[in-house]
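Input chain follows. Return structure tokens only.
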Amino acid sequence: MMDRILSKLKPNTIVKGSLFPENVHVIIAQPFGNAIKLIGRGDSNQVYEPVIPEDKFSLLSD
């Protein structure tokens, strides 16, 4: 499942969902144990750097 999610989180991809208050443009996403470390920039230029655990992957949408 993680490989499928990582393949969608390519640079410049826009993600949304309940994890973020705005659309987030992916800068980089990397595996982090059983989670994904995502670094992205919101439409407001806010930088987001969450570590998203596997049980929260479903909260991401592209």
